Amino acid sequence: MDLMGTPTHPHTPDCAATPAGLPPVPATLPQWERTMQRARAAGQMGQMVMALAFEQQALALALRLVQQTPPAGREDDCIAALVVSHLNVADLQVQAAETDAAARLLGRAHGLLQSLVADGRCGAALRQAAWRHGRETHAALLAHVRSHGPHPAIAQALAGGGLAGLSS
After folding, report:
1. Percent of the chain with pLDDT over 90
2. Are 82 and 52 in contact (CB under 8 A)?
3. What sign has the CA pseudo-torsion 32, 38, 138, 151?
4. Could you write out the DSSP letters of every residue in 124-143?
5. Nearest Cα to Cα of residue 36 among 73, 67, 77
6. C-alpha distances out from residue 105 to 19, 85, 113, 138, 160, Å
7. Are 89 and 134 within 8 A, CB to CB?
8. Which of 3.30.70, 1.25.40, 1.10.12, 1.10.3470 would CATH assign to domain 13-160?
9. Are 160 and 114 in contact (CB under 8 A)?
10. What pLDDT sits at residue 29?
11. SS3 for 81?
12. Residues of the chain with pLDDT under 70
């Protein structure tokens, strides 16, 4: 699922291509970390629009980290970046009273992890990392329901048990 909610598969070469058909510059964990630091700094200064923009950039980098082959031994870090970025963007959306968008994003995050777990084309380390971090997105879905009430995207993600959230 891309940032706009368009269904994609995280391991098909075409989903990593730029609109011009050129392959994107590979994302790195240090890039993601720097972007997260900028987001944190903007949030601490009360610049929430800027913080959200940096968090969305970090999410795009995290998605690319998982779409490309993660560096050997860093699969868990790449999945953690993906989860943290989804949760941070969803938190900022809730703060901006965009609970519907946050619910959809959380559902897509959980569905993406479930998809990675089920994808035999992924390496074992990436699949195991997605499985471990799925507990965090599951907890975030339940917390969102407790705080903001039920949402169809969350119900679908919780009931899907696999590809939930990727078809929305």
Report:
1. 72
2. no
3. negative
4. HHHHHHHHHHHHHHHHHHHH
5. 77
6. 23, 11, 12, 12, 15
7. no
8. 1.25.40
9. yes
10. 95
11. helix
12. 1-24, 161-168
The domain spans of the chain are 13-160
pLDDT of residue 133: 97
For 12, phi then psi, to 5°, come to -95, 135
Rounded to 10 deg, the angle between the 75-95 and 29-44 helix axes is 20
Residues 120, 69 contacting (CB under 8 angstroms): no
Cα distance between residue 79 and residue 86, in whole Å:
11
CA gap 168, 46 in Å, rounded: 32
User: What are the structure tokens assigned to 26, written together?
Assistant: 């590979």
Q: What pLDDT is stored for residue 13 in this prediction?
A: 27
Q: Distance between CA 11 and CA 166 in Å, rounded?
A: 14
Torsion sign over Cα 65, 164, 12, 119: positive
